[in-house]
């Protein structure tokens, strides 16, 4: 079973839910926690991870063999990203614009283009404890897109375990890449007009991908009930409400799991898992 | 005219709290919401929509089914796993980067690149205050190009109507969207939070800002939530000779005003509002 923890944007408590849920569930069965928020992964901060593997994620950048190049300009013409330019003195590749797609190499009539590997990030895997394994991706600064790192990370998915993925924030491409092939989307939102606005956008994406979903309201309070109204109008169940609580915020700031603060919370997260499992089964 | 960008290494640090309040405090300015993935600033302002522009940022490959012989060459060419085998082969629009490689290799010339709409951008007015903002089509690549359009629109209005400032609510993170939010601005305000990841997120965004050679200062939000971390950030800033523009306390009023969809500075007596006002005056001195 594969659960993605999704939020319309950063800071809603997505990592809090993913890490606490993984911890509680792993008390009973094997769990794999993956952090796909590759621009700013921070699930690892809540655990002592013993890393056992590290793989570079690479793209191929074009380089031009001057001897063979006839300055015909074909490469620049086919490139959709303005990443290669032909001057009277030679050809220049702008590495930070290049997607490493290989189109220029295909188009070059004299086979003047060859490719070099460039590392754009890493995927690391490790163990938290016997029943809880971990994987995370990290995009290098200055690289435009983390999609490829997420794709690499997802290759480590172990279908025999309960997989919990901490998705990137937002609703763009990396989130879609994370959601692809997931069995369930756990939507984390906060009880404010901002939260509702971002939730609507995220729900649109998950609906379109036809993945069952449920909502956890973080920083819930009784004076803002619009999320509940929206959820019931869309037939999306609300699975849990985490109150607005200074202790929980402080636990997060210290890198502690708040389910460890009170037994009640541990049990509520066990129930949260049961509810999700009930939908998928 | 000066451009000021408010950014953070990560979402949820209180960036919109600060820029929403600055939008209330600044006089004679234009706001630009560059968080096109999850724009929130307009929720604080109840603006009236004036103009809508469509944004075509990229292209997507399309296979003409009747020409496809299912030879599989395109799938082997595509480096983004965007081609789905079958009779005929198909393109997964969410994975396709519109790179053109498959178009070049299909022996049947069955593939073409089509312009695809990646979002809309808007000009609105909240009372007298012009706001330029956008919405990325869900599932699209977070686009520096769309952010550039939002900023261009804001600048155009600022010039036409002779405003003194453009205040930018930047995209979170350190990727291309964040970079597009700060290129060429006069001053960058970085919002940090004292959490276990806060220091690390801060260092990454500082690195990015330095990369673009922009002047910047730091605001620590919810500074009293974890004073150990706050001290850590303050010491680091000291060592790096980075100015701390101010500290905003953890204040339940921030959330209450968010529920009312109001900038927190409207409630003048709240502790957060007072801190933000100080930051605003400090900013005026600096730019
Ligand atoms: S590899 Fe692709 S993106 Fe890079 S220069 Fe060649 S055509 Fe352009
Ligand atoms: S297509 Fe090949 S030969 Fe032509 S300019 Fe580019 S590198 Fe040179
Ligand atoms: S290369 Fe062209 S003909 Fe071959 S599978 Fe792809 S679209 Fe079909
Ligand atoms: S345009 Fe590029 S990314 Fe899209 S399907 Fe073709 S090869 Fe793949």
From TrEMBL, chain A:
Q: Does the keyword Iron apply?
A: yes
Concerning CDD domains, the annotation shows: SIMIBI_bact_arch
Q: Name one GO molecular function term.
A: metal ion binding
Q: Where is the 4Fe-4S ferredoxin-type domain?
A: 60-89, 90-119
Q: Which UniProt keywords apply?
A: Iron, Iron-sulfur, Metal-binding
* Pfam families membership: CbiA (PF01656), Fer4 (PF00037)
This protein's name: (4Fe-4S)-binding protein
Look up and give the organism this protein is from. Kosmotoga arenicorallina S304
From TrEMBL, chain B:
SUPFAM superfamilies annotated for this entry?
P-loop containing nucleoside triphosphate hydrolases (SSF52540)
Q: Which UniProt keywords apply?
A: Iron, Iron-sulfur, Metal-binding
One of the entry's Gene Ontology molecular-function terms is:
iron-sulfur cluster binding
User: Residue ranges of the 4Fe-4S ferredoxin-type domain?
Assistant: 59-83, 87-116
Q: Does the keyword Translocase apply?
A: no
Gene3D superfamilies recorded: 3.30.70.20, P-loop containing nucleotide triphosphate hydrolases
Protein name, as recorded:
(4Fe-4S)-binding protein
């Amino acid at each position: 079973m594969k659960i993605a923890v999704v939020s319309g944007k950063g800071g809603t408590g997505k990592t809090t839910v993913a890490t606490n849920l993984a911890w509680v569930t792993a008390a009973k069965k094997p769990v794999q926690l993956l952090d796909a928020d590759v621009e700013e992964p921070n699930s690892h901060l809540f655990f002592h991870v013993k890393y056992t593997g590290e793989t570079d994620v690479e793209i191929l950048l074009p380089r031009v063999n001057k001897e063979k190049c006839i300055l015909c300009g074909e490469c620049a013409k086919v490139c959709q990203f303005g990443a290669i330019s032909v001057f009277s003195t030679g050809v220049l590749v702008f590495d930070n614009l290049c997607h490493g797609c290989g189109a220029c190499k295909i188009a070059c009539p004299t086979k003047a283009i060859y490719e070099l590997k460039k590392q754009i990030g890493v995927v690391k895997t490790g163990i938290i404890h016997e029943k809880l394994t971990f994987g995370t991706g990290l995009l290098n600064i200055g690289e435009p897109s983390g999609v490829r790192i997420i794709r690499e990370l997802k290759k480590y998915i172990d279908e025999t375990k309960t997989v919990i993925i901490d998705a990137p924030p937002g609703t763009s491409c990396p989130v879609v890449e994370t959601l692809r092939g997931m069995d369930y989307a756990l939507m984390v939102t906060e009880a404010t007009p901002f939260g509702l606005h971002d939730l609507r956008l995220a729900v649109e994406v998950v609906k379109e991908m036809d993945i069952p979903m449920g909502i956890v309201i973080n920083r819930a309070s009784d004076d803002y009930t619009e999320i509940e109204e929206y959820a019931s109008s869309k037939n999306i169940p609300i699975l849990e409400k985490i109150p607005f609580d200074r202790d929980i915020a402080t636990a997060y700031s210290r890198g502690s799991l708040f389910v460890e603060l009170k037994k009640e919370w541990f049990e509520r997260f066990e129930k949260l898992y049961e509810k999700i499992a009930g939908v998928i089964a | 005219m000066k451009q000021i960008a408010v950014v953070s290494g990560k979402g949820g640090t209180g960036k919109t709290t600060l820029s929403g309040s600055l939008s209330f405090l600044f006089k004679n300015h234009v706001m630009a919401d560059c968080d096109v993935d999850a724009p929130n600033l307009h929720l604080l302002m109840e603006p009236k929509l004036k103009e809508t522009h469509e944004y075509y940022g990229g292209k997507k490959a399309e296979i003409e089914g009747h020409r496809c012989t299912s030879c599989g060459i395109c799938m082997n060419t595509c480096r983004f796993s965007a081609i789905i085998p079958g009779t005929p082969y198909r393109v997964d629009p969410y994975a396709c980067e519109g790179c053109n490689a498959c178009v070049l290799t299909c022996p049947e010339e069955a593939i073409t690149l089509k312009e695809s709409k990646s979002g809309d951008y808007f000009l609105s007015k909240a009372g007298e205050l012009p706001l330029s903002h956008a919405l990325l089509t869900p599932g699209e690549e977070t686009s520096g190009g769309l952010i550039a359009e939002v900023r261009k629109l804001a600048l155009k209005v600022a010039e036409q109507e002779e405003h003194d400032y453009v205040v930018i609510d930047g995209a979170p993170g350190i990727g291309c969207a964040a970079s597009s939010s700060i290129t060429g601005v006069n001053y960058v305000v970085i919002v940090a939070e004292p959490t276990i990841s806060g220091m690390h997120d801060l260092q990454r965004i500082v690195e990015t800002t330095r990369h673009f050679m922009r002047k910047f200062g730091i605001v620590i939000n919810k500074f009293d939530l974890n004073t150990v971390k706050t001290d850590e950030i303050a010491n680091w800033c000291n060592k790096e000779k980075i100015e701390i523009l101010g500290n905003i306390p953890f204040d339940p009023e921030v959330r209450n005003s968010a529920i009312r969809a109001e900038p927190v500075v409207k409630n003048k007596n709240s502790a957060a509002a007072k801190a933000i006002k100080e930051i605003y005056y400090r900013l005026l001195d600096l730019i």
